[in-house]
Amino acid sequence: MKIKNNLLTWLILTAIVMLVFPWLTYTFIKGDTGMAVCFVLFFVIDPLFSIICGVFAGREPKKLWVCPLMTGILFILGCWMSFEMGEGAFVVYGIGYCAIGAATMGISVLFSKLLRR
What we know:
Elements: H1 7-28, H2 31-59, H3 61-64, H4 66-82, H5 88-116
């Protein structure tokens, strides 16, 4: 199945990864195992998703520019709903994921322009 570069598809995927995954972790995995899963989520899955989202957004930046921004915003909302409302560390991570996605989108745009020449 080929993933289309449309906004709705990416917003749904982003909502699943950034809203549902933290909720599933908090709800179903307890104790030290839950903390380990949170580390994997925050330091592996979420940054990789931000990179992938940025690469695909870079293919159609006029249409998908909002995807890296939504990645950070939905991460913050997902963590606040699942863990602790108003925690500042989640804002820092959300800004970081947004920056990763935006940088990757910019790099993807540059490479696509270079490859077209």
